[in-house]
Amino acid sequence: MNIRPTSLLCAAWLLCAAAAPAQTPAPTTQEQIDAKVAAQQKDKSLLDIYADGGFWMHPILLTSLVAVALTGFCGVMVRKSRIMPPQLVNDLNNLILQRQVSQAHQVCLAQNNPLASVIGAALVKANFEAPMFNKPAMEAAAAEALGAEEAKLGIWVNYLNVCAQIAPMLGLFGTVVGMIEAFNQLAAGKAEPSDLAGGIGVAMTTTAGGLLVAIPAMCLYFFFRGQLTAIMTDLQKSASRMLDLFTGEMNPDGTRPPTGHTMQIPTR
What we know:
The chain is mainly α.
């Protein structure tokens, strides 16, 4: 009779011990999500972030590579020393001042830069028999050549602007795709926060990637556009000065001859 109560007490004690772990509160869903996100974000590399953006990070990367290549090209081509080399300016000034048209034209043909193209086009129109050596036609030819040279360089600068416009559009497209994926999961009843985070992660990563490419590309576009405009303005002034030297409307020191000054007979 004494054994039965003892057995009951032992059984009760074992049941309480077994139930004790079950009474420990399980982690909530939000805690599980936070732990999962923290584990995923720990030591995340740039490659991991790139992979999070999905397919649309590839065209954004390609756009950035094109922008880098264009930056290098414009950095080489849009330079004053390349567009109007100082030595060529001095040589042409001396030859034009002496009205050595043939020699000056040969110098222009031997060069491959905008200044040589502009002055070479003007010298072709020179005519010693015409009033003012046919200066109006020379100015028109120089202006046409100047516009063509600026357009040839400007098109490469404009491509930087294209990259700056395309990159955020690609990022926006990736954003839309990511949000569509998230809403599709909601519609299918798979509304797990961790699953939704994947689609939203794609959206945010592609947006950031597009802006990361677009902002520097836009800044570089305005820099090179302003630099090209300033250099072409200097080229126009230099060409105008050479034509004035050629017609005798300007002295070598930059001053204007007195009114009524008789033009010297040119050396052919």
